């Protein structure tokens, strides 16, 4: 008989965060359709939509305490941080079409990437992701 585990508050917060980010992309897309038209916005939002679907699947995995989701969070936060700072340092701004400045590449990777990396590498959090059964919280 396995001991049931309760979801930590941090896991719930990150799962909700990784749902809110895709929702913001969808809302932004819906707001801009009347001004630019659907066909003009699809190429601009194709990448963010793919990322949004990925983040929704990831948030479900985090909420269910799946080890693969924790590993993706750790590696993803490292890659996100490196990508953001690299874009900033070389002056490349692929999100310029969305009206975002270069500082976005420092702000988001720092505010989201570092806390994600820190939280999901804690020994107690790692332990929570090892078990399969969780209590309905």
Describe this structure in words.
With 137 residues, the chain is mainly α. The C terminus is likely disordered. It has five helices and no strands.
Brief summary:
This protein is mostly helical and 137 residues long. It contains 5 helices and no strands.
SSE arrangement:
Layout: H1 9-36, H2 38-63, H3 67-90, H4 104-120, H5 123-128
Helix pairs in contact: 1-2, 2-3, 3-4
The SSE order reads HHHHH
Average pLDDT works out at 78
What's the alpha carbon Rg, rounded to whole Å?
17 Å
Low-confidence stretches: 133-137
What is the β-strand count? 0
Structural class call reads mainly alpha
The N- to C-terminal Cα distance equals 20 Å
Helix content: over 70%
The global form is: globular
Largest sheet: none
Strand content: under 5%
What's the tally of helices? Answer: 5
Keywords:
5 helices, 137 residues, globular, 0% strand, mainly alpha
